[in-house]
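Spend some time on this chain, tokens included, and walk me through the fold:

. . .
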Amino acid sequence: MALSAGAATALMTLYLLAVRTLRGQIFERVAANGRSLQPFRVRGAAWLLLDTISVGSLALTLFVILGMALRRHRNVAAFVAATVVFGSVASTEFLKLVILKRPDLAAQGDPNSFPSGHTTVAVSIVVAGLLLVPFSRRGSVAMLGASYAILIGTATVIVGWHRPSDVLGAWLVVGAWTFAVLAYLSDGTESAAITDRAGGATWWLIAGLIALVVMFIFGLAATTYIGLDRQATGRRTGERIALAKRAVAFGFSMSAVAALAVFLIALLLQFLPGVSTRLAARSATT
């Protein structure tokens, strides 16, 4: 439960710093404006990627995942996965629309968009898949799912739907729900947690996740540099400096998203083996 509380605390700290302070809002505006440096093809790809996230796609994906679990008589596991998905999505919308407000400190006049709903959907589906797939497929699901969720979050910033903190907040919402569920399944005992960690993610999977972050950062740096080089040509020194600030802020923010994503996925993988065993046992009992 400590991990869940930590994620929730990090979520509120991020909100207070990025949304409720003038410096936070100014930094976010500079970082979000960095999306204009992305080449046209990258922005087009971002729109195509976001087309894969909708109410219909969410329902279909969740239906397939839960159907596979129920077919293997993993009723409890299916219920747990559904709890993470619906709890995360409902929490995100409730926080964004009802609880969390955005003061207009930087004279932008934008409504609150913290946390990101699209990112929450993508991340929660990935977590549900990790909770339900067999051990032999967990590595591929972790790599592909983390890549997809990171790209979805990045795409929402590139097209102007969200700010970087919105994406970070979505990962923390799902993290809070996921670790709360894992704490419940481990009965809150330290011995259970130690058992889970002992059979956790293998070194090659952790190395693969780290490599994923590195590739994402290099790819993002490359596309941002291309856009910066094109737009800075013929500009005055002051304008070039402003563009460079956008590039750095955008790159730093989205790299932080990728790093947080891989950290949470790796942490989840450390606890999954023992939890999966208990899920199977409870499903068999049920």
Summary: Confidence is low (pLDDT under 50) at residues 188-199. The radius of gyration is 20 Å.
